[in-house]
Amino acid sequence: VQLVETGGGLVQPGESLRLSCAVSQPGNVIRIYAMGWFRQPPGKQRELVAVHTNGRGTEYGDSVKGRVTISRDGSANTLYLQMNNLKPEDTAVYYCNADDHGMGPIDDIWGQGTQVTVSS
Fold first, then answer.
1. Bridge partners of residue 96, in order along the sequence
2. Most C-beta atoms within 10 A of its C-beta, which of 22, 40, 46, 50?
3. DSSP-based helix, strand, coil % in the chain, nearest 5
């Protein structure tokens, strides 16, 4: 399975952006136990943005709660991250992650990342 992120770019504070993570092999975006988005700001460690776990629901990072929404689209075999009211501190490389946590064949797979820059 491969993950390919797209949708990053340069936006101004207050604007919105939707990131996409295309998942290879049809059916996987729904089947995979946990799929999420993480980010790594410049000079900092990678942190959770949002993760959706089948049967358990969604968890969001404290710094983005109320501003982002994660969703899986089975017809497009894609994981999305809708981000609204973006702030300069949202500037980071955003990574897509897939992990079956022992309940399937996918073991902690990452995409290559997409850069999001929020600046006026």
1. 37
2. 50
3. 5, 50, 45
